[in-house]
Amino acid sequence: MSLRTRLILLTGSWILLILLFFNMFIYNYIFKRTTDAENRMLWNKAQIILRNPLVHRPENWENSRLLWEFIADDTMIRIISPDNAVMAQISTNEQLTEYPAVYRTDYYSEVENSIEARMLFIQVPILENGKQIGQLELGKALNVIGSLMEILGQGLMITSISVMLFSILGGIFYTRIIIRPLRQMLETMRMIRSKGDFLMLGPKYTSRKDEIGRLGQTFNDMISHLQEHDRKQKQFVADASHELRTPLTVIESYTSMLKRWGGNDPAIRREALDAVQSETRRLKNLIESLLKLAEFEREEQVKLDETALVPLVQETKEQLEQAFNREIRFTASEVSKHRRLLADAKKIKQLLIIILDNAIKYSREPIDVTLADVSGFAELKIADKGVGISQEDLPHLFERFYRVDQTRNRETGGTGLGLAIAKQIIDLHQGTIRFESEVGEGTTVTILLPWKAQTEQ
Ligand SMILES: Nc1ncnc2c1ncn2[C@@H]1O[C@H](COP(=O)(O)OP(=O)(O)OP(=O)(O)O)[C@@H](O)[C@H]1O
Ligand SMILES: [Mg+2]
Fold first, then answer.
1. Which of 141, 202, 407, 420 lies at a CB distance of 3.0 to 4.6 Å from 400, suitable for a disulfide?
2. Given the DSSP bridges, would you call strands 328-332 and 367-374 parallel, antiparallel or unpaired?
3. pLDDT in tens, 271-324
4. Three-class SS of residue 356?
């Protein structure tokens, strides 16, 4: 069932329900009010009749003129004796006289509903010296009310049907207004899908201030997100294949050279083997980094544990000092020694290696690492006095495969993936990373990582 049919049906049945309820209410209300009025009139009439002292003498009951002056259209007046006998009766409506005469000792009122007519009866005791000697009964055929109610019923029916018709027509009209932009949007989306292009919805949908406008904006946001994702993906595949091809080309050319004539010349053989070895190492590193990046993208949830940063930096520093035979100076503030991170220790160590490895690769002098506590954050600064990075290059450092100087980096063997991985680790821990650098002077990397809240420690 389409949204439109559902809307029309829903509002239609709701209106029908309301109409039914109100019609019933109006009908019953009017009926009750008019019957009550008739009832009151009968009681008044009974009072007037009883005021006549002749009525209180049973010997007068036979006199037909006794009650005659009180009769009106569609009315019956009779007196019933204690033995259920009708002692006097006058009527202007035959049906009323068919109502069985029952002697009652109290005040009584009843609406009699039959298929042909609706009748109202009241009974009042006739008292003489405080003793009941008979019963006065007044009846009234509610013909006028009945036909009035019939007219009312018909009127209500006609108005209800018209209201229903108009509401359905209105429903068809207003749902069209509501649904039309949705349909058009759907059409555009279908077109986008069939063409496979990243088409956006026009301002007709997105500039509206309602839910449809928001839907349009969200759709466009999603498309541009997908587009960006697609662009990055394509860029990544292009970069990755380029990066993989370069070492493979080197390896291929050296091996074919060896095969052709280099095998006999020890110098050439050595050079070729060296090149093949270093390119293979490069390839291996590259593939490892690529796998790591892919792993980060797959992993949605990280396991965060309480981690002391000082020993982690200390340990990494010592390992790198040994491996590269370089000096790294580490100082930590007192506060930072006592506080903990909520972090994945292995990933933080990897982050430290990436940054320190760069500092080692791109400088010659000792490297300074400081750890301090800055308003709830661990502030780690890694400063080198190396080649530095120009202002134009700074914004691109975290892009995959981005290397400042391709030739310089070829010698240092970088893949340009280190900082892309570092950024992912930082994001995973809700931290920030900042580079400050001056070409020829050196680079300072500032990392901020939130400490675990102290109350939890
Ligand atoms: N401390 C630094 N001093 C100077 N240049 C740096 C420094 N850190 C990073 N860079 C520049 O940023 C580029 C990107 O760094 P990144 O670590 O991502 O790649 P890489 O070091 O070339 O390769 P790898 O993936 O092996 O780390 C580097 O190629 C280098 O040019
Ligand atoms: Mg690096």
1. 420
2. parallel
3. 889 999 999 998 998 888 888 888 777 766 678 899 999 999 999 999 999 999
4. helix
Pair (278, 320) in one structural domain: no
Q: pLDDT digit string (tens) for 356-370? A: 999 999 999 999 999
pLDDT of 2 over the 60 cut? yes
Is the CB–ligand 1 distance for residue 349 below 6 Å? no
Task: Report the alpha-carbon distance of residue 396 to residue 413 in Å, rounded.
Answer: 19
DSSP designation for 124:
E
**Is the per-residue pLDDT at 457 higher than 80?**
no
Same domain, 35 and 121: yes
CATH number assigned to the domain comprising residue 216:
1.10.287.130
| Ligand 2 center from residue 46 Cα (angstroms) | 112
Q: Does the beta carbon of 386 lie inside 6 Å of ligand 1? A: yes
Whose atoms come closest to the Cα of 365: which ligand?
A: 1
Closest ligand to C-alpha of residue 409 is 1
Please tell me whether residues 348 and 251 are part of one structural domain: no
121 pocket-lining for ligand 1 (C-beta < 6 Å): no
Environment class of 254 (CB within 10 Å of its CB; exposed 0-12, middle 13-18, buried 19+) = buried
Whether 355 lines ligand 1, by a CB cut-off of 6 Å, is no
